User: Fold these one by one.
Assistant:
Number 1:
Amino acid sequence: MNIINLSLKVLEPKRRIFEAATKEPLKAQEHVLFEYLRRSAKTEYGRTYDFASIKSIDEYRKRVPLVDYEDIREHVDRMAAGEENILTRDKPIFFGATSGTTDKPKLIPVTRYSESQNDSLLNLWSYYIARDHPDVTDGKILAIVSPEKEGETPSGVLLGAESGHSYRNLPKTVMALYSLPYEVFEIEDYEARHYAMLRISMGQEITDIATLNPNTIVLLCRKIERWQDLIIKDIAEGTLSEKFEIPERIRKNITIRLKPDKRRAEKLSTILRSKGKLLPRDFWPKMKMIECWMGGMMKLYLKELETYFGKITTRDMGCVSTEARSSIPVRDNDPGGILAIRTNFFEFIPKEDIDSKNKRTLLCDGLEKGKEYYIVVTTAAGLYRYNIDDIVKVYDFFNKTPMIEFVQKGRGATSMAGEKLYESQVNESLKASCDAAGLTIDFFCAVATPLDGPRYTLLAEFSGPGPSDERMRKFLVSLEVQLRIHNREYDFVRASQLLKEPVLKIVRKGSFEDYRARKISNGAPEGQFKAPRLTDDAEFEKNFSVEKTIPFG
């Protein structure tokens, strides 16, 4: 029995239990909540809000406050210093590090118990993939994550990327399915890490690629042509080029796994001679799917994947943050999944209520299809009524349980003249304008510039040969039209001349990759790096070299 058949057999009972729970989601949510309250009743936080005496969901919502990270930072800092029984009775074994609203990172505790809860969710996600794609493990899985270790807490607990932590701790039998050894992600030099990824994976038959940000895949594919001859040579000789700065310890751990493969090298050479370039669709012909984020601005990058992979099946990674995994994707080419009702307890704040002093919080049985909400979680790791600051949309129901997709970060909004422009509206407008003009972008950001108008400065780097000025001007006008369609307040302030027309600034080719490299070298997690599509940082433009300005009209 192969690993796929075994997985399906083992996980089938869990699939039945989960799908049965989707028929009575509030009952499942109640069970999760009271299990977490029971476990944490004697913690400092549990005693403060008397978890032990809470008898209903409504009582929990009345007694325990909504919080964001800054509200609990002091509690987490104490946990990181080694104090126990603060937010959870379980001792943290790891802290997931992620950026917050201040210059200090957020540290999210991971415990053995919370890890087991998340593993159950991931097993279900894997079940649905295996069910729909039983041949997905006919080759290797190319997963791209960020390093597990970025530092340590004062008490000596590792902190870093949760994706790297999970990857490094995969069982050996499962790790055998993956293309890259963990050590690759420890390479600090940006170019060297990417070269190692390509050199190793192109020497294998890849059937599945998994990473959060699809732009990471696009970026790797663009670099193949630059290194193709060197990659073929390394594969033939079983080496890892000395041209790249790789620490000796890491180089040794990688090269010990490499063997000369002249047959694979000749296959790549044949493709290169016949096609003129190496594209994944040619050298990985058995590719089954790509797993990545599909919601929000990621929709723009999915189209570019076709250049390298042709028509490829995609599976969303789900609504995932360092704080919580909130959905279980169950369908191909679908930017969302079923609310993870047996893993976390969820509440939802209607988007229009977020600035209200008396915010409504809805439960999973009170949501409406097509509406957008801020998502609030209570987790096994000690987060209680925690506003992740993610906006999700309910786009369907599975039985009686909402299916959600990520829309944007909650703070991804700007307003200079009352327009309240959201990043999601920029994403949709940009996609429509790119499709209409037949253009593909490498980078785009709308910058709110209040002192110049006010107006929006649109920074862009187009793929391929630069379009003509006239074509870019038409693109700019189209984008303006789309913004006015997607945001009535924007339409109003433009019509009333409270907001000046936008201006398009074309940045130097390669500017975005240079910016991305700088951010990653300064500590941003590569697998999760996302440049803003909309910002109110008027200084943001200084990160790029502007080559041309296209006025409106």
Number 2:
Amino acid sequence: MKRKNLALLPVLSLLSCTHQPPIKHDSLKQDNIKNIILLIGDGMGPQQVGLLLSYAHQARKSVLNKPTAFERLLKNGGDLGISLTHPKDALVTDSAAAATQISGGTYTHSERIGIDQHGHKTETVLDKAKKVGKSTGLISDTRITHATPAAFSAHKNHRGMETEIAVDLLNSNVDILFSAGLNYWLPQAINTDVQQKVALQKKYPNLPIQLKSKRTDQQNLLDDATKKGYQLAFNTLDLEQSQGKTIGLFAPYSMPDAITEHQASNRVQPSLKMMSSKALKILDTNPNGFFLMIEAGQIDWAGHANDTGLLLHEMLKFNNLLHYLLDWIEQHPDTLLVVTADHETGGFGFSYSADNVPEPRYLADDNYFKPNYNFGSPDILDKLYLQKLSYQKMFWRFDQLALDEKTPANLMKIINNNSEFKINLAQAKRILLTEKNPYFLKKHSTLGNMTVPKISANSAFFPYQSGNRRNLLAQAVANQQSVVWSTGAHTSTPVYVFSKGPLSVQSHFSNIMTHRELGKKLSSLLTNINF
């Protein structure tokens, strides 16, 4: 499929939606606010926000019965700014660098966690919150050792050092850690020693039955956490009963995606909203206030997969959480809420095409109208919502088949049973084509396979090669969805910064800034420094 460059959404025009002029101050005073909530939509560029808005305003069967939370925030006096996401000496960032710059207010290079461009540890906004007596929390719907939460309380040369990141998180004494990533907290011996595994499950009876460690040592971080005074939570019931300092590890590797969560009738694993609600109840008991970072990280994962249906569900999940947070801060006016993204993922957008151009027709007064292009029907939005499985789970089901059943016909059946956008046998065959890896690097984490799915155009921009069948599926259904994706990675698109809180504080976030400057603004709330 021929790729097209996507123009940046008219972000500057949206700045006119802000309702209050900036107020100039020499510094942001700590006594202006008690609490800071930072909500990060990982991978959530203007295009992803635009998908939610398109669904809310144009889907004929929209499940939303009120304006989106973004519209509510601005209508009720919030502000809107723009942030440039680039790291040091590069055009495009990754989540580690972006989160490090937001958390520490200093430039760094991609893939680094909590260290600046020179390799020095950064003092994060979370660290500064603790210094002034505030409680602190980190929440993610990915895993707690993933790049974004890690960058607020760990310091490592590379984001892949998740075993060591888990230790940093534990030693940083954060009051609330809610996410997945249990595998990085368990001793390596349970992978081979049945007795140790049974003993661990007996000691912590609410652990999942299927346990596997990702650690390379014998350190049991669960035991270490209890010695440090943490309560442990492994499921929704544990979360509901938790009080005080709590580490919640609700899945071995990652939390459920938004489609799975939407379909769940009995939630063993808490939703992002449930984790956030419990965190606020615990943190709000501190009379000095708190700092809480919440990451909606699977927006990014949907973007990497070019999975538009999943992306819509992730944005609906984000919208639901943001409405809840707006409700909460209405009752806590001494709270600042900042909503932003680390970067945009996928180069997503709806576009018009030459496929299936509508037939000419007569308008009123016998005026003849002949369309030149297909501009996309709003019915697409409702069909996207009806997707039953993420692309990742579709291919997981395919991979579970016996070898002689892994046929294009069976792939077509799985996809067509779970999506309103159907593929034919020829497209299924195309998705399953492989080639010798043109970018092979021995022992590389994503480029280390000799044979990879065959992407004919711009293959260098789809570097997560083991998952590229998902991107090929996106290309196969692109014409039906009127959707284009420019990459399987990140883009340099500037991101929005929404803010809601005391006017003298929120107004400082209503301009064009960099992530480094955004981080300095957040830190200044806790240090009274001039920025």
Number 3:
Amino acid sequence: MATILGIFAIALGLSLALTPVFKRLGLRFGAVDEPDKRKLHTRPIARCGGVGIFLAFLLSLSVSPLFFKTSVSGLLVLNSQMAFVLLGALIAFGIGLVDDVHRLGSTIKFVFHILAATAAFFGGLQIGQVHIFGLNMQMGVLSYALTVFWFVLFINAVNLIDGLDGLASGITFFACAVMVVLAMVKGNFLIAMLFAALAGSILGFLRYNFNPASIFLGDSGSYFLGYSIAALSIMGSIKSQMGVLLLIPLVGLGVPVFDTILSPIRRFVIGRDMFNPDKGHIHHRLIEKGISTRRVVWIIYGISVLLCALSLLLIHLRDEQVGLFLILLAAASVLFLRKLGYFEYITSDRIFGWLKDLTDESGIKRDRRTFLSLQMQIASSENIYQLWGRVIQAAKKIQLNAVTLDPYPGVFGAATLPPFTWNSGAQGPEEEAALTDQRSLRVKMPIASNGTVYATLTLSKSIKKGNDDRFVLRRVEHLRRTITDTMEKLGVRSLTCPELLEDRRHPDNQTAQAWEGHERRGLHLPQ
């Protein structure tokens, strides 16, 4: 106990002494966080606090055996496993430090996160089996993927929550403190010493990072802390059956872990880049509610302390009780996030609307397949008259009241075609009036491709109560694209082509009617 407290005190003292030094160095060498629309601070602040934490952690573990000659301190030896763990920590810390000085792309950082996790994996930190709910699951070939996911999750969880003064450092301190207690209860004094050193390093930095902060963690600090917690939690579970013990850091860091999982999903739902930063995180949502920055930090501190306390109960619960606990915790989390407006885009009406759109676009709906068949018929038209007859069929399908296709002069050979016009023939006085008021849909659009205008398409439809007009505009766009592609294909042909004479005599009623209509308007076939 004394050795563990001593290591904590040494790490705390070193962090208190080193952090101001690196604050000045950060300002001098440009490792600063500039204010912008996403940030809450209004002046440049050094973002290399992670360097002080990293050095305080390593130095405290290095000098502790000199001060404490106990059997517990004798456990601090640099074996092959520890060497690989430190290599991974150095990779995570190093890429974060480079990003603090020279901004890197998310892909590069993600690759190095995987490399850091890979180093730990080859050092023996592997989630090879999970024992939970009475089941002992062997991961087999999935062990590597699960281990990498574990590391990447924690690295990014700490990084994403680092948006307010003292928030990430405070939450990780509470998680480390819980893991110290748990490790001591389990008699795993090596893990207790490592977490104690990490907790002391964080607490010393928190003195300068709490609101108003004079230095930030930076990516170097958040990546190192996320990696360290992920690595030490696996180390502490290796000698026992992995399961409940791995859940403890997940529950203790519940706020950032939830935020990390939900953020990409939220961005995907609203159509944004899944990995671009934004101001939609939990702490941002609380600030939007009118809560001050300092109070938001205290609120999330309180939630984290409660989660840490609850996580300690997990080691005393049976499997079925753990399952019930997790269900209740998940339900409470969903209610809390819903209050924050996190699920404003995931309501039942929006989900059903999205599913309807999806089934329509994918062709699962029969109505879409039927209209697609009409599009295919239009696309196979061999002349403009055949095309027009099939356009009429499509117009009837989507219950249009009138359609006009006005070919552009000179596009189809030397002849100038008068407009093709069709109406449903069912317009009475009420329908005619509907087409001139707010209950009508009127669309006029060019049929053009690659700078060539082939025709103008005009459509009209009365909107009647009880009709399902959800996909009318989508069908109109499908129709426009099909007509455009077909007219582009037909535009290179002349009306004087001999086969058009045969088309006039063809028994296809639609084509024959189109010819007869144009003959009545004064257009005659060349002899």
